[in-house]
Amino acid sequence: MVYRVLTLVCLAGFTLAACSASPSQPGTQAVTTEVQSTVPYPLVVAPVVDSGDPYPAADEVITQPPTPYPGSDVETPVAANQATYANNELKYQLSYPADWQVDDKGLSQPNKEVIFSPRDAAAFTVYFSISLDERDLETVRQAYMENSPGAASSEITFAGQPAIQFSTENRVEVYVPYQERLYLIYSDQPLDEQVVSMFSSFQFLP
Fold it and tell me: What is the pLDDT of residue 150?
């Protein structure tokens, strides 16, 4: 009798030990340990950049600064076969094509106009003209605002002097004061290469 009781007690002890050691038995709570990762999520992979080739490549932007036209302070190559016209009374000189005509009959008039043109110039087309204007610069500016609001105007430096340029599609006028006179230099052919060269060569005399 005593032997049977001891046997049952031993069997019960072995059974309890086996149950406590098995985590898969119903009613048993598993103990887990949370591990904190040191890698951020989501994982960011940086692009591999060759040290000799910047990434991303910057776009190269080239801007050409605007230059007023015409600007006699901008150097322009002087064409061959040029002649020089100088007027000591009106204090200016310039270069012009040697085969062009110079009409200075206007010097007898109050505005003292001198006109330069090629021999085959179209009628009523002024290639290059220099004259005096009896108005002052502010009066000229106001007149353009009232009578030619569509004309583009800009303040430029012409022959070393501050000036105002008015331009339309087919005409350029430059008003420049010098020694108590207001000079008007204009052209109906502002894109002609010879005309551009003449504007650039214009100089005032002391």
Answer: 84
